[in-house]
Amino acid sequence: MPPRQFDGSLVRAARRRRDMHQRELGELVGVSGATVARWESGKDFPKGEKLPAIATALDEPLDELFPHEGPPDLQLLRCDAGLSVAEAAEVLGASRAPVANAESGRRRLNTSYIRPLAAAYGVTEEKLLAAQDRSFGVRPTSPSEDQQTAPRTVGEKINFLLQYGSTEETAMSDADIARLVNQHAPGAAITAEGIKELRDGAATAAPDEVRAGLADAFQVPPWLFGDDAELSPMVQEFLEAVRFIGSIHQGQVLGLAARGSEILSLKAMADINRLVGELRHKLSEVQDNE
Asked: Are 238 and 220 within 8 A, CB to CB?
């Protein structure tokens, strides 16, 4: 699949509006009419670097014909410049490896490659470096954005940890969470319905014993379920570490080695090491296919 969304039926509709045959579109973008037919039927997809040429040939805005979500990463910048990996590598006077490794989040570009690659992609060096961060799973935000988007309430933190903090195939249910909290708290501190109300936002207040029990249930520091009003740098760093672990588990980050942190628990570090180990064979397969 190309890095942008591709819908062959939209290409067919745009082509027909211009009374253009598949063969004609193919000639304009450097492929056969049969290849265009496969694209339009959904049997095949064009390479990402072909999409700008297709949009130009059909006189359609690239972002409207082939939309994408979020800021660009390195692969999207290259494809929007209409360059293959080999062509981008030729700009650098190097093999395909530096470009492919950077796009897949395995090894960052040599600093000497930044300026020529930015020029080839038609972007600033700052935009190229930001795209490289995204290829490596880094989510750049300003402090104000962190304060706005990071989970604050008890329920938001539960949902965040369920999404990013579990390395199990099945996330804990409300009943599971309530059971673990009650094992830690003195007596029956909360029910499964109470957990659901917190997660849905129907309830926002939680007594200290429930907050402590939630920290124990999710194996996170107790201060993570502390005051909802302020997000200290330590809390923000911990949440980003949790998000990073989740990205590894979901296969979104393949090339970052786990490094120790004073705020990561032994269990969290063990999860990172185990997950990175499980993905080593995938990295080997990717490198073998280059």
From this structure: yes
